[in-house]
User: Fold these one by one.
Assistant:
Number 1:
Amino acid sequence: MTLQTLAPDSKASDIVDAMQADGACIVRDVLSPETLAKLNGDVRPWIDRSMVGTDDFIGRKTKRTGALIARCPEVRPVVTNPLILEAANAFLAPHCERIQLHLTQTIDINPGQGEQPLHRDRLAWGGYIPKEIEPQFNTIWALTDFTEESGATHIVPGSNLWPLDRIQKSRDESVQAVMSPGSVVCYSGTVIHGGGENRSNATRTGLNITYCLGWLRQEENQYLSCPPEIAKNLDPAITDLMGYTMGNYALGYYADPEMIDGLPDTLPPEIALGRHPDTIPGNTLIANGPSVNDIDLVLSDAGKRS
């Protein structure tokens, strides 16, 4: 058993095909050495300040660090990497109109850390999502060498096609996502996987960026990890992914606690960031309301724009 390894100039459809067949694949050397160096420099101070886990699943010698959109500007272009984002959208498209950012997290596995229990990430929502609905598109970017000795992620190819009650307890059917820094392993929420044992003398650092269906609750609460006062200064491509936009008709609107005179009380989240939505497909709550110019004028008068 092996994982398919794709070239960095592969098509998004190649990634989707591999994931539908095996549940995972590797895309090698996506990030340049220069980008990788900036990324490592950006996340390392936050990792160094993080505490190790307090149970065997999180890892007692593993540091997990989140809120990366707010903390680490170098992470943002990775979240919106065109190839991976196109693949994520295509993979999840059968079950949603819009995808969203599920979590951002570095996973720093230190020497001496044992194997993480094998699991399916979709269990974050319990057993309530039917098997035929795939809820997640996950990535782990290698910020250091992912080797068998350093704890490269174990994946059970094809387990995405198994019944959900079939759990693989041993690693006999697993392979490790061995890859060089700057490469990325993409895997579904249904495939069985788990972090490997770090038997080396070096730390294994990965950047875990996950996308999910736009109508599900996110694992990392993006609105607390990156509140409006920070999000208002970010690119709309990032804030839309985080959830600062309508997920569907009537899904995600808000009412300003103080009320904004001149605007309806069913506002798209972009208003909280001081801007109007670029598009409002099928959203009659807002589309039948004030024009873009009217919204700009009201926000300006109310002092809501940054």
Number 2:
Amino acid sequence: MDRYEELLDRALSSLPEKTQKFERFELPQIEMFYQGNKTIIRNFDAIVQKVRRPAQLLSKYFSKELAVPASIDGNKLVLNGKISDRNLKEKLQTFVDMAVICKECRRPDTRISDVGSVKMLICEACGARSPLKI
């Protein structure tokens, strides 16, 4: 048993130190307000820039998931219905987990590419590919 631990210690000491720091991916807080029966996301453009996805894709996702019509008005997203901020945060987090974060390395460095008739989530950090279900 001592020989095993000795070999394990030697192997462990020969491994390089971790040189990369992994930053935690944080979404901006959703800034929203109600105007009549509409919910307006004020910082929609900041969210789109952070997740690096087209505004139309995120708008379509919100519209489909929340079952309300949505439209982009400048840098805001207008949802025709009163939606709670908790519900919006949950839907945004689900979108990020499905269409932004790599399934293998959990990094946000991904892009969407069409491969035939299937949309693929391709990680630029580790090279993993997974089908996108949006």
Number 3:
Amino acid sequence: MSLRRLLHIAGAVIGATGVAMFSAAIVGLMYQEWGDSLQIVLAAAIAIGIGGAMWKVFDRPGELTTREGFAAVGIAWLAMTFAGTLPFVLTGEISNFTDAFFETAAGFSTTGSSILPDPGALSHAILFWRSLTQWIGGMGIIVLSIAILPLLGVGGVQLARAESPGVNPDRLTPRFAETARRLWLIYIGFTGLEALFLWAGEMTLFEAVNHSFTTMSTGGFGTTSGSIGDFGAYTQWVVIVFMVIAGTSFALHYKGLRSPLEYVRHPGFRLYALVLGVAAVVIAVGTWGTAIADTIRDAIFVSVTLVTTTGFGTADFGQWSVFLQIMAVGLMFIGGMAGSTSGSVKIYRHSILYQASRNDLRRLIHPRGVFMPRWGKDPVSEAVVESVQSFFLLYMFAFMTGTALFGIIISASGSPFDIPSTVSAVASALGNIGPGLGAVGPASNFAAVPDLGKWLLALLMIVGRLEIFPIVLLFTRELWRR
């Protein structure tokens, strides 16, 4: 394990974060927000200065080992999040550092939880930076680095494996750098296409760009306190379509754009569509009212926003029946397809877990039988099954431990949080969703959470975004042992 190499990578990521800040400063200049633009330029200069110094001082080029790849992912995301707080703090838009870190973690992790009662009160420059953090985090700063780090003399294959443990990255080409470039082109293309559709409706160009950033990243940050609910039916249907696109594997998009039948053939997409359809029907039946069109649209919107972990809101599901609230929390544990920008457990893991459990039951009846889970027509190796089982065990352990710790923090602070609010806040943070129930529901925010609770939830956001393993491994002795 080379600590110098890890710090070298962290420096490159911090510097890249600083470069991204200049786009927010330009937006500020366009809206004549001179003070905020100047402070964001200062923030960019600080990030680039610190990152550049680390990159130069700790220069250790060479191919990363597997252990270094996992460590680099965790350290880089933490470093990027700390650097991303600078525009919020220096402009004074979010002066409290804990709140700024929470908002930034929610951005880069594409969680969408917020401490802001009204995002519309922010300057255009900061609002753009807030949305941009989600867009960057959507495909992953580490995936982007697959194309960049080799130019710096650092291999990126291990970084991709570390960000998606348990399943090999779906190469579209023999070279990882070329694969990353093609995925980013698709990501940028869909983002631009959604912005055009939203702009053609009732949104301004600024609102359209911001919401396309936070839709394609399945992040869920909005520009107003009412989220997508502040806009009409046309806008909501556009967002529904692109949330579904964002929750679909981008490798499948690459193949499907050439041959649309690839979507139908893919077992993950069929299961993904089935889950969305069943959830929408159940919610529609449970919320059936006189305004049939609104009921159907809200049911589809909520099912899609929860399964894809986007977190936009049009209806306060915290006001629904107890059964539907429980269902809403359950949907937080599903997630979209592997290779998408959504968070949570993911569809393919649920399928493998179900098949493995079913096969265990079948072995009780047929002890000599040979049963193997399949993904479509392909058999799934025992190593992959064990990896999925380990991930789910760690995910549930993180959820239960996080809930217990968050409950202790809430009790000690005397905050007015009930059990649904506490449980859903942790489930939302770990699954990178955004709103929960009750005190942290779609009609509220996370401002009332004690500072220590915000740090815990922010850590859970990052743990969930990196799919558990890279952060957990940072605290194991084996990772750092020579």
Number 4:
Amino acid sequence: MAAETQYTANTGMANIATANANLDGTGTLGTVLTAASNGTLIKSITVKSLVTTTQGMIRLFIFDGTNTRLIKEIPVEANTKSSVNPAVQYKWNCDIKLKSGQVLKASTEKAESFNIIAEGLDWAYYGGAVRPESTNFTANTGTGLVSTANSNLDGTGTVVTVLTTGPSASGWKGCRIESLTIKGIVTTTAGMIRLYIYDGTNTRIFKEVMIPAITKSATQAAFECKVDVEGFQLKPDYLIKASTQNAESFHITVEGNDWKYPA
């Protein structure tokens, strides 16, 4: 961020208590936090039970205004709370950014009461002191669903757009890819997720991620992987796309930061 960046705390809170076994974003979800105009950095998410718990799962989603994508499952242990034994508590130090208007949502596998607290930071730029050479960042978090089998590595077949970088015509200089998460929402067999870069004409394979066989359940999280992209800098107007080897459903989330310079 530029030296003139100003931060405002954005602490999101929700209570969830309605059982929801779905991983596709349907069913009862609690709204935790909505991202601000430049985006919101979520530094951590705390899950705190209010009751005695049975073994289950807390699920976290990103809603982009149209689609709800699973990003994280947090296992919940069986625990009997008492005056000397605290109720279940987890903290996920996530450091993820949400794009403007995107919403963090949550659900619980079991009909047990949990508070979800998101530690967020909104940022803005102080116009009166922004130097021309200062870098202004805006969160660009893309999500997509891949579910159609495609064994091709040349970019043909069913390939889904996950993120589009800011357009050069609007002054964007590129997009720094901070993280890329693959989250299964079904039982998986051994296979592959493939990631591509599209330049407007050509689709080129960038990475392959091996998927193991995992039988998801109320107590077993579906496949999850955070791909090491090492702050990859992507050109304006380019796209990140994805495909799946097997006809199994995965949510892909790409956390990016578009940047430009003050006029």
